[in-house]
Amino acid sequence: MATSKSPWWKSAVIYQIYPRSFQDSNGDGIGDLQGITSRLDYLADLGIDAIWLSPVYRSPQDDNGYDISDYCDIDPMFGTLADMDTLIGEARKRNIRIIMDLVLNHSSDEHPWFLEAKKSRDNPFHDYYVWRDGNEDVPPNDMKACFGGSAWTWVPDVQQYYFHQFSVKQPDLNWDNPKVREEIYKIINFWIERGVGGFRLDVIDQIAKEPDLKITNNGPMLHAYIREMNRHTFGGTDLVTVGEAWGANVDNAKIYSDPSGREFSMVFQFEHIGLDQIHGKEKWDLKPLDWMELKKVLSKWQTGLHGCGWNSLFWNNHDLPRIVSRWGDDGKYREESAKMFATLLHGMQGTPYIYQGEELGMTNAPYDISDYRDIETLHIYRDRLAEGYAEEDVMRSIHAKGRDNARTPMQWDSSENAGFTVGKPWLKVNPNYLQINAAEECNTADSVFAYYKALIALRKKYPIFAEGDYQLLMGDDPDVFAYKRTWKEQTLYVICNFHAKKLNEVIPEEYRKGTLLISNYAEQGSSLKPYEARIYLEQRN
Ligand code: TEU
Ligand code: CA
To answer: How far apart are CA 46 and CA 95, in angstroms?
Structure first.
């Protein structure tokens, strides 16, 4: 429990659900809302406070729901508004809040606004989107879309190009049009009235784009738009709001998450996530993680926002590969490394996010290209082959970084399709579900699941997890990631071995003299075993 003046989300743990991959209830091979409701007891047992639900709105599913054609209805594939109300109500009974994913930078090209907008230049909806003149063969500039090709698509009926930062089916909304902003506030208030607990705002740093200047994120009007949205919707409520911002740095994160509450509760930023790609290139251009850099970056965010902003803490989401496969060991030390990463993150200040299956130590899924479904993966495969890359190099990148690594169905038990569906799953189940599944782990005292559960319980029990400051220890040590957190008469020592090797260096006695709160090994020596992690609590006087 945080202090009385602290908002609830400062001591909360948020669990992300990717609905199409969580639990299917009707055998069509696609996860749905009734499926999620049926698994709420599992989440209550884990101890989480809120669920961030990836989009379930009506959508043609070009980008798995991040292309919305009706913001105030549920896609029939996922259920109905009544199912959503049931989920919200059943979750509330278990003290779990539902956080909706708002995709406000763009809509689907099948949204009624866009269907109107592309009819004629004088259509009242035309200016809901971003258009530029040009001629059919020469786009306004050379900006590229995230999922392949130009960011500009020609519409013969209006003799103009529309702008899209993502796929051709995700036209960018024009936030400079006050009517668009009003419509957006209505949508947000619709969900607030339905009883949701907050919002995750997709690529929010890209809404104030200035395509003529080739500005995508952090446009000049960005914070003005966010503040206006805040005033007209969630401002002054106890809702949690988290802005996804690939372009955030410590300085602007303080603006986004200023404790005055003018913008958001926190931002979801990715600086640590880019540390295993070649600088200035794409995520597919792999380089080994520089572990010292990871220490530096995470520490910078911890000290940078202490007292003047708020961090989101995460390794995983629906766009990222699985952490044990990425930076840990998904073979021999799968469990130890999964627990070590959990310790490192959950010991920090901020709100931890757990992405479905992370609490089981789920791994990447190195499939053939024909087994992947993600629009981004399929594009990069085609584009890179066309550019002359060797197929095996492209596949190595996809196996390391492809988004479907995170999207394989949740592994519930050892029955067919891991208990995810009785039908044919939309994306292949990872064959390792026989060893890695929830049923097994819920019944095992030292499982990854049990470890996450214990970490969550510690955050609830000791306010120091939410409140304490941060100081990096053993900063020059190439193997140990250690830090201390101080609050009132308490100090927390978090000590982790990032590697598969047993270390020789002795951990100073001073760090080890408190009570051991948690560890991924049964016995603790003066040095660290492979991927060993510990948290000690020292109580003064
Ligand atoms: O992601 C933002 C984003 O920029 C991603 O495209 C990201 O760069 C990529 O996944 C990493 O390779 C958000 C959503 O999380 C993502 O699922 C959507 O596809 C995207 O926005 C468009 O809405
Ligand atoms: Ca279904």
So the answer is: 12
